[in-house]
Amino acid sequence: MLRPVRKRGVPVSRRGSSWPARFTRTKTRKAVIVRIGRLDLATIEGSPADKGGQWGRRLVSALVLLASGAALTLILTEHSGRFRPSEASPFPEVQVPVQRVQERVPVTDAALMQAEETRYRALSEFVAKRYRVSQDVAFDLVTVAHTAAHQLQLDPLLIIAVIAIESRFNPIAESSAGARGLMQIIPKFHGDKLEAFGGEQAVFEPEANIHVGARILKEYLRRTGNLGIALQMYAGALDDSEDQYTRKVLSEHYRLQQVIAPSQQRPSRPAAVRSAAATPVAYPNVLPSALD
After folding, report:
1. Beta strand residue intervals within 117-266, DSSP E
2. Which CA distances in Å does 47 have to 11, 41, 54, 105?
C-alpha cells in the first residue's frame, strides 16, 4: 500500500519490500512513476529498521557507560586502599620497634662506658691512696688489668690483687730470685711468652708485664683447676702448708670487691685456700698433676 505522495520519492509495495519511486505530474495532474529503485529502510526516518538501529546504539552506549563506571569504581577503590593503611598491615608494628632499638643502642653503650669508667676511677683511687702511686698511673694500670682479664676470661680484681702483693704497683720492682716488674715475672722461665712483646727486655713495660703475668696465672689454673693451688704455684710456694701467699691475694681481692660493690651486697670473706674459687669463671675440674 502506497504512502502519501512526497515531493521527490514515495515507497511502493512490491513483493513485501519497499521501493523508492520517482514520479512526475502530467497536465491532468496524475502522478506517473518514472523510475523504481531499491529502498534502504535504514534511511527512512520512522521506519522499523531505523528504530532498531537507534535502540541498538542506545544499548551499546549504555553498556559502555556501565563498563566505564565499573572501571572507575575499581580504580578509586584500589587507590583508596593503598593510601589508607589497613588495621592488619604489618608496617606500623615493624617500624616502631626498629626505631626504638636504634635509639636505645647509643644510650646503652654510653651507660656501659660510664659504668666502666666509674668502676676504674673507684679502683684507681683506692690503689693510688693505698700504694702511694699517681692516680693517672693507677687508672692506666687498672685499665690494662681489665683488658688482659677479659681476653683470658679471668677476674680483673684477681690480677690487680696479684700486682698489689707482688710489687705494690712498682713497675721496676726486682727480687733477688730474678723476678721483675709489676707481676714479678722471671724472664728465664717465661721467655717464650715475652717474645710476643719484644723479648725479655719488655719485662719492665707495665702493659707487657701484666699480659704475660695474666697468661701465666691462666695456665696454672688450667693445669690445677684450683685457684688456691694456682696462686701458690705462681708464688713458687707449693710447699707452704699455710698458703700465706694465697691468703694475702684473696684478702686484697676482698678489699677490692668492697670498693666497687654496693653497700647492701658486700662480698663474703675468702673461702678455704686450697679449695678457693674466688673468680666467677668456671674452670675445668681437673685433679692437680705432678708439679715440679
Report:
1. none
2. 11, 6, 11, 87
Give the whole-angstrom CA distance, residue 203 versus residue 183. 9
Domains and CATH numbers, the chain: 7-42+51-62 (no CATH), 113-265 (1.10.530.10)
Residue 198, sorted as left (phi over 0), alpha (psi -120 to 50) or beta, turns out to be left
Among residues 132, 150, 152, 128, the alpha carbon closest in space to that of 140 is found at 128
DSSP 8-state symbol, 4: P
Q: Are strands 31-36 and 17-25 parallel, antiparallel or unpaired?
A: antiparallel
268: cell is 663474703
Q: pLDDT of the chain along its 292 residues, tens only?
A: 444 444 444 444 444 444 455 555 555 555 554 454 554 544 544 555 555 667 777 888 888 888 888 888 877 776 665 545 444 444 444 443 444 434 444 546 777 788 889 999 999 999 999 999 999 999 999 999 999 999 999 999 999 999 999 999 999 999 999 999 999 999 999 999 999 999 999 999 999 999 999 999 999 999 999 999 999 999 999 999 899 999 999 999 999 999 998 644 555 555 545 655 444 333 333 333 333 3
Euclidean distance between CA atoms 237 and 229, whole angstroms = 9
Using the CB atoms, write b or e for 112-136: b if 16+ within 10 Å: eeeeeeeebeebbebbbeeeebeee
The amino acid present at 281, given as its one-letter code, is V
What is the chain's alpha carbon radius of gyration, rounded to the nearest angstrom? 53
